[in-house]
Amino acid sequence: MSEVKNRIAVLRAEHKISQQALADAISVSRKTISTIETGRFTPSVTIALKLAIFFNVTVEEIFSLN
């Protein structure tokens, strides 16, 4: 089974933004950001698109299959 990997923590560090600030910006909880970053939760397409728009990158630049 494939595992979804992501670069959210890296992008947050590059943009100097906290989990809470990112969560507030895309209207989710900080816990949602945390669980996505650690791979315990795969986000919906809507959340993935909001993250891509926020970071000004493509969804594929954030998420990949392992």
TrEMBL record:
UniProt keyword annotations, A-Z: DNA-binding
Superkingdom of the source species: Bacteria
All copies of domain HTH cro/C1-type, residue ranges: 8-62
Name of the protein described by the UniProt record: Helix-turn-helix transcriptional regulator
Lineage start: Bacteria, Pseudomonadati, Pseudomonadota, Gammaproteobacteria, Alteromonadales
